[in-house]
Design goal:
By secondary structure, the protein is of the alpha+beta class. The chain has two domains: 42 residues, no CATH class; 107 residues. It is built from six helices and six strands. The strands form two sheets. A three-stranded antiparallel beta sheet has the order 1-2-3, with no helix packed on it. A hairpin with a 5-residue loop joins strand 4 and strand 5. The chain starts with 16 loop residues before the first strand and ends with a helix.
Length: 188
Amino acid sequence: MTLEKDMRCPYCGFVDSKVIDSRELDEKVRRRRQCLKCEARFTTYESVVERSLFVIKKDGRREEFSREKLARGIGKACEKRPLPTGAVDSVADEIERELYGLGKAEVSTVTIGDMVMERLKRLDHIAYIRFASVYREFADIGSLKQAVDDLMIGEKPRLVGTGQLPLIPPPAAAAAPARRLRRRAKRH
């Protein structure tokens, strides 16, 4: 049996380790391992390798689907956002499951992009706009403003993550501080 490069000890590179703990997580198995040479501990995740899924790029090229590439793209959009730990991985896992669940051998980048947009819209509006600006290739500030306006139509103001205010305050909320200031000015 040949061990893959990723199964080597990340500290010393030794190829043999023992499993200390093993737990099932969704469709993966999490294993805590200990290197037999340096005795350092590390975690590996094992999952069933699905059948090949190919992505049809905008220019017609085809390449094998990469969950890591998907997670990197989502991660870039979510960079420095107050999101719960593991949110990016959860979104990537959910999209990957849905893609394989389609039962198709090929899927377009448009399908994947739309799935990402749908989930980011629910997760974090700033991440959604960041992703949209690249995915939709906004040509000017007007296109960006239109995307923000579309996002805000019908949306109730909400706190995002750890008490963060929405991207654009609703008109009533913006008027409230002005009313308070006018009342204070009248008193003095």
